[in-house]
Amino acid sequence: MRAERIGRRIRGRLVCRVGRQTVALAAALLAVLTPCSPISIAAAQGADACRAGPARIDRIAEVGLRGEIRLASGARILLDSLRWPEEPEAAAARAWLEVRRARDLTVVPRGGPDRWGRQRADLVPDVLLGDGEPDLAGGLAAAGLAAVDPGEADALCRPALLRVEAGARARGLGLWRTPLPEARDGPGLRAREGRFVVVEARVRHVGERAARTYIDFVRRGEDGLTVTVSKRTWRGVLEHGLTGPGLAGRRVRVRGIVEIRRGPAIDIAVPELVELLDEAGTEDGRRGAESGHAEGRGTGRDR
């Protein structure tokens, strides 16, 4: 009954009640919650995946081991645009969310449910969180307890979270306390098969082919990382000002699940996941996708 009363209260209400918050806070919320910037191709490629449904009030009832959140209404959700971490950060992320269980949250669904009936959503508290984080996904990313990732969605609905994550990485928080995997460490990447990784490295070669583009981080014959990008996603990368010749020799950040073919490989599903870095390892002003699983069966070594 409590959940039903909460649900009735929010029906038809806006996500942000600006009357109770400053204009600056409203602007911050819009910056973080906006699905895609005017130059993002998410609106073109993933409009359905990022479309916001009717907002409602609910509360966290339970946090599952793999990040599934059961709400007081019985709905099962996943925080949008985040990858749930492995242990020990997973325990810390659950504890972080458990503290918020007693609070009213505005639930903003994104797209449709997945194959298990879980809904991706943004969860925005009625009262700001401890350090001023406007929502739960932003709070976890800011604490270094989760990495940004679209998961099975066709688009990264909240590319602004990449900036939030970058702040946590610069401070060495949570996930970012340990060094990132090395793109040239073939054995180390092989040991991470099936796991999500974030890698920063210098591009050795970019091969554009009819079906997909290959971004190599090692010379031909060496054991290291190759990133494959589908034709559709590569078009998005090009739309944001990056080209094959322009990437060669530059430092980039990529992320995804490690697969083993002839060598370690990652498939890039959305343009935002190719981030151009400056020489200090921070985001370049012309960063790949934000200036806004592809099927791949080969790596740079297949050519």
UniProtKB/TrEMBL annotation:
UniProt superkingdom: Bacteria
Keyword RNA-binding: no
Keywords from the UniProt entry: Signal
Comp. bias intervals (Basic and acidic residues): 283-303
Residue ranges, annotated region (Disordered): 281-303
Record Gene3D superfamilies: 2.40.50.90
Protein name: DNA-binding protein
